[in-house]
Amino acid sequence: MKRLPLAPLFALALPQIGLAAAVDSDLWSADTTTGEVVRITKATDTAGTPLATGTGSYQLAVDDASVWVIDYESDDLHRIDKVTGLITATIDVTTSMFGIGVDEDDVWVTSQDTDKLYRVDKDTETVIDEVQLAAAISSAVAVDDTHVWIGNQTDDVQVVEKATMTVVATVTHTSATGKNSADIAVDDTHAWLVYRVNGGLLLKVNRSTFVVESEIDLSFDSLWGVAVDEDYVWVTQEDAGGVIRITKSDESELTTVLSDGSCAPFVDDDYVWVSSGSIAMLTRLDKTTLGVLGTVSGTGLYFYGGDATGYEFDWWNDADGDGDLASVDCDDDDPDVGPSQAEVQCNGVDDDCDTATVDDEDVDGDLVSVCDGDCDDDDPDVNPGVDEILDNGKDDDCDPATPDTEEIGDDTGDDTGDDTGDDTGDDDDDDGCGCSGVPGSGGAVLLSLLMVLAATRRREVVGEKGA
């Protein structure tokens, strides 16, 4: 591995980039004519200061922390830190590198000289394995979670299994004979293969069985690149500047033509970008209308191909570490959200990434949900908006403070209740306080005392009279 001096990519202040996912506020371009790499700010459609990386920067791939650039002329693989904009390593891999892909652990590159696929470990920045491919011009690379797909500019596409580092399938189809494979994109269920000449062709291949499930005749020669998102497949046509959007659900097509030509397409969640086939320019398109939203021109923008946004990396990786790949995780920045998670009610989040499981349910249809305080969502007559009905055994208004049974007071003034002044001794202690515990005993003692006093008073009066 060769080390280069650290060189700044920008003279301007660097944007803050979150490293939870590869897709962020920027995209990247590698210019085949100048050997430069440029960061483009999406929000403003502006390019930063070009970074010289060699004499033939050909394709690049973006992950969560780095930009990986292959130099066709110098046979080097460059690593650029996304935050600092510095070249941190230059790795001597092989001669005439052409295609590149990246996953969480490795960088995958092909060589047109050796017809091999090389595996570069990110941590050690060294080549750790290689696979001999068929004798053809190896070109496009697409990486999913288990396989690497390689186009070879013939009629075939080879599939290498990562775990065994062996070619486990070769995709062929009679309709592709003589058309030459040009580019590959992979989603969670299919690989999409573009063929270049003799009436362009797009093949839809099952990722599990490697069987061609559909062939779409695009009726264009010189097809160049393909990109894929959740809803669409995007194909570019070099000579006429065509950009073709194929809807996955029904394979319908919508085409626009860019006057300055089209070469490599790349996407993120919001837009599709297309590099020009004739001048150093990128065009940003609206995914729905295919209308032009902006352009970026300048040195370093004659882009040939690769994953310029990091969307392909994110599709097959797990940024939040919850075990759910970004291709199926509806929020890959939150480890508590994903298809493997249980739905938590009333938190305002689609925890299980399933819109069929409602966060705020109203099962009984009384227009009051559990989150709004419905204490029995199976009974439409129970919710905080109804009146409490006495003696029905239900908390109709979902308020424990309103009793279900009417209360009758004890202090009525009769001699049946407690504390009425009767002599029942209900309030006597049972701890041997000297009370006899005999009903009426207190009154008898009092009466006896009164009689004694009265007798004593009579004797005193009689004594006075006798005196």
Q: What is shown here, in short?
A:
The protein has 467 residues and is mainly β. It has 2 helices and 29 strands.
Largest sheet: 5 strands, mixed
Categorize the overall geometry.
elongated
Average pLDDT reading? 80
Question: How many β-strand runs?
Answer: 29
- The CATH fourth-level homologous superfamily of the domain at 26-315: YVTN repeat-like/Quinoprotein amine dehydrogenase
Spatial order of strands in the largest sheet: 8-7-6-5-29
User: How much beta, percentage-wise?
Assistant: 25-35%
**Low-pLDDT segments:** 1-20, 411-441
CATH class of the domain at 26-315: Mainly Beta
What does the radius of gyration come to? 41 Å
**Might you state the CATH topology name of the domain at 26-315?**
Methylamine Dehydrogenase, Chain H
Structural class: mainly beta
Query: How many alpha or pi helices?
Result: 2
Question: Could you describe the 3D structure shown?
Answer:
There is one protein chain. This protein is mainly beta. It has a domain at 26-315: Methylamine Dehydrogenase, Chain H (7 Propeller), CATH 2.130.10.10. Helix content is 7%, strand content 33%. The chain has 2 helices and 29 strands. The chain has helices at residues 311-315, 441-466, and strands spanning 26-30, 36-41, 46-47, 51-52, 57-62, 66-71, 76-81, 87-92, 97-102, 106-111, 116-121, 126-132, 141-143, 147-151, 157-161, 166-171, 181-186, 190-195, 201-206, 212-217, 223-228, 232-237, 242-247, 253-257, 265-267, 271-275, 281-286, 292-297, 306-307. Strands 8-7-6-5-29 form a 5-stranded mixed beta sheet. A hairpin with a 5-residue loop joins strand 7 and strand 8 (87-92). 37% of the residues are buried.
